[in-house]
Write a structure and sequence with these properties.
DNA Primase, Chain A; 155 residues
């Protein structure tokens, strides 16, 4: 496991979640209607961001930075989250799936006929990645919630 410096940790803690999302997942951020400085995530609409803070109403979790978000919501290990924020690279592949779903790319005839295989994500501490994956495949939130409550989906 790589050793982190105090400077890397300080730099990672200073990254604002809204700035992080606008840079790495621009299709996943929307401005709240009627609110001047409030934004929400499209993927997790219970997450509200304002004035350098964020709060997830569905789980009563909050934080001040993108580092807090990656650890608490996405379940990323602290070291991986710090390295991701300080190196400028992203490690979550589903953001590309999310971007494809929200934009309408032009497909060549060869690409239009190929279907993506259905692959379940790896097990995680919570069901955020499962929900994101299934939403990316076009499955409605109410159906996903019913499956989670019925213990059909395991995370």
């Amino acid at each position: 496991m790589p050793k982190l410096t105090e400077e890397q940790i300080r730099q990672a803690r200073s990254v604002d979640l809204l700035d992080y999302l606008k840079t790495h997942e621009p299709n996943n951020v929307r401005k709240s209607k009627g609110r001047t400085n409030e934004f929400f995530m499209v993927e997790h609409d219970s997450i509200k961001m304002s004035n350098g803070k964020w709060f997830r109403h569905s789980t009563q979790q909050g934080g001040h930075s993108a580092l807090d978000f990656l650890i608490k919501v996405r379940g990323v290990h602290f070291v991986d989250a710090v390295l991701s924020l300080t190196s400028g690279s992203t490690f979550i592949d589903y953001k590309n799936k999310f971007a494809q779903k929200t934009s309408t790319p032009s497909l060549s005839p060869n690409q239009a006929n190929t279907e993506k295989p259905f692959i379940l994500p790896k097990l995680n501490k919570n069901c955020d990645l499962v929900v994101a994956y299934l939403r990316g495949r076009g499955i409605g939130r109410d159906i996903i919630n019913r499956c989670i409550k019925a213990r059909i989906l395991n995370f």
